[in-house]
Amino acid sequence: SQQGEEDPQALSIQEGENATMNCSYKTSINNLQWYRQNSGRGLVHLILIRSNEREKHSGRLRVTLDTSKKSSSLLITASRAADTASYFCATVPKFISSGSARQLTFGSGTQLTVLP
Amino acid sequence: SQTIHQWPATLVQPVGSPLSLECTVEGTSNPNLYWYRQAAGRGLQLLFYSVGIGQISSEVPQNLSASRPQDRQFILSSKKLLLSDSGFYLCAWTTTQAGVGTEAFFGQGTRLTVV
Known about the structure:
The complex is a heterodimer. By secondary structure, chain A is mainly beta.
């Protein structure tokens, strides 16, 4: 089942503008991650934020996490045409049973289009 | 450095034919391995994961099976494909090292079309 749900489903902006994508989830998490997927390719990890962190930066990326609201946002500043891709949030549960893997549960993604 | 190989990149198979997709990881040992399926324009659905050789956990009952014959090899199979098996299949791995981030590393995916 889907844990994270991204909002909006699609976003179209002009080059140079900022892009903000949101993610909501349902259960307690160990961490939340954001991934990028170019069309027809595998996913690439962008950034991980732990449940005890509120904000994290990586280059033009800024991620926030609000565990009380069970939500996260990804901000891409000064967007470029090359940022066009689908962006997914994924959650890792706080509690796992013995012998199980920490499974990533993905949302349905936001399709970002940056127009030149 | 670690790398993950997944093949083939595209596959067109008739209904009722068998399937075998292979994924191998290099540069790490004892990884957790995963098979995901992605429908067009949708998120990823976890199909199988493995924490060790011969250990397979299935998330969704279906026409598919998985095997892990070697530490860094993960195979997705079907004896008889259905039209509904069409999709984009992704292999991924995560480290099992304690205290290390649980980010996943993905293969480039296999586009399977069942006709």
